[in-house]
Amino acid sequence: MSRKTKIAVLGSGRGSNFVSLANACNDGSLPAEIVMVISDVKDARILQLAQELRLPSKFIEPGKYRTKLDETAETDYVATLLNSGAEWVALAGFMRILKGDFLRAFEQKVINIHPSLLPAFPGLEAWKQAHEYGVRVSGCTVHLVDHGIDTGSILAQGVVPVIEGDTPESLHRRIQEEEHKLYPRTLARLFNGEISIGQLV
Ligand code: GAR
Question: From the CB of 75, is ligand 1 less than 6 Å away?
Answer without folding.
Answer: no
